[in-house]
Structures are given as C-alpha cells and as structure tokens.
Amino acid sequence: MHDAGVSVIPAPTFGLLAPLSPLDDRRGVGGPQASPADDGLAEVARDGLVDAIWLRDLPVVPTDDDDTGQGTDPFAHLGHLAGVVGAPTVLGTASVILGARHPLVLARAALTVQAQSGGRFILGLGTGGKPAMNAALGVADRTLDSFAQEWWAVRRALRGDVGDDVRLRMPVPWPPPPVYLATTDTERWRAVDGDPEGWLAFAADEKAFSSQHDAFSRISGRPVETAVRFDLTVLVPDDAGADPIPVRGRAGGTIDQLCSLLARWRRMPVSHLLVNVRSEDPVADLRRLREA
Prior knowledge:
This protein is an alpha/beta fold. The protein contains nine helices and ten strands.
C-alpha cells in the first residue's frame, strides 16, 4: 500500500512510432508498406506489445533522407487502426507541421479520428520539419507570428469556432483531442501562452530534457505532460560503444543498452514513450524493449 502523502508517477505508455520495418543496409531503414492493412501495426496492437501507436506526417521527404515515416496519410491510417480489434489505448500524430494543412481541414481530420477511436487520439503539432519538405509544401521561413496564428486557428476550429458563415459539423461530436506541441524553442511555447496540453520531445541528455520541461511548465503555470521520442538502432556488441545518450531522439546500442536507456526514462515524469526500432528483427526487439 502506498503512503497517502507520497505522489506516485504513473508508468508512461509504451508506444510504437511507425514504421515497423527491418533495417535495409542500402538505405538505413526499410521502406514503408504500401497498405495500412499489411504493415504489421495492427498485429502489434493485437498482441499487446504496445499501448500506443504514433504516426508521422511526412507528405514528401528529401531524396537523401531515410526518415520516411509510414508512407501514408496519418489520419486515414489512424482511422483504420481505430477500428482494429484490440486497438491500443492511444493513437497519435508525431507530428503534423503547422501550415501544411488548412486549420479547418486539420481540425476536421483530427476530430474524425477522435470520434473513430472513442476519444483516444492525441494531436501532435510541429513547428519545424525538414527544410526541403517545408519548401515543397510552401511553409518554409514562417515567422513566429504566423506560427502563433496557425496554432490559435487550429485550437478554435477544434472547438467548432470557425466563423459566423460556416459550420464544422461532425456526424458524432466528441470533445477536442489533447494537443501536444513538438518544439525545442522556448519562444514558440511562450508565443502561444503555454497553451498546449503536452510537449512532444526528442529524447536527449536527461538533465537538458528536465531543464527544458521545467521551462515549459513555468510558462504554462502547470506541469506539462510529455511524450518522448526515441529512434533506436540495435547494434551488435562489436559495433556498440558506451551506454548511449540520445541526440534528437536517435541512439544506437546493443539491445541490453537500449533496454537500460528506456528503463531510466520510464522513471522520469513522462506520460508517453514513442519508440521507433531499427533492427533486423524490429518486432522481436520491440518485444524485448517492452518486457524490460
């Protein structure tokens, strides 16, 4: 029995950050499956290997970039996963770049997945993205003010506030999903008055992460929920070095080293762990990470 005066931090959800594909020596990571029906995510959810599935929104990627995401529209894909028997506790985007979709279109897509999942959706919004992708989408070099305007437009639309002449009418109304912001820029967090329900962060040095989290929580006037991303490459012992310290979420090490890394982060004030596994057998290694 716990002491009534002791605050207990709940264990974070253990989530898969898609894709789930084996390493390809030619490109660094295997390419995405063609269809949500055969990409392995539903099977992982049914087997109880993960509590959450997070999808990225990368409409196009630079030609020399192996970070291709799942290769599908995240909202359509999450809608499919929401209907899978044994679907996970959380479905989320990690993340949608603000400006890449009109706020009204983005809000309708988010509210659709929120309804389809029975209120299990988390909308992750991003402020950056890959320069070549942003240029192709026409959202490069945006100002701090334009970012803030996009943020508030999405927040209003999620509440159904779309102006006097139109309506955003959903067949099955649901409360808006929580919105997490992916940024390392304190000024961007301040530009939206600490409004996000949560912070989408890359795993990093643990002290640096804690310092950034404290800064965001001070601006928000409350402890901010966190979802922390890991891109983990499983190495054989001869190729691994000392215990890995993630850099922008990326870390490589033996499976034992990576299990120890996640075990440390499970003890931190984190609500969600997002794990992308890059290995010859990602399902087996995902199981090892889960069991650890």
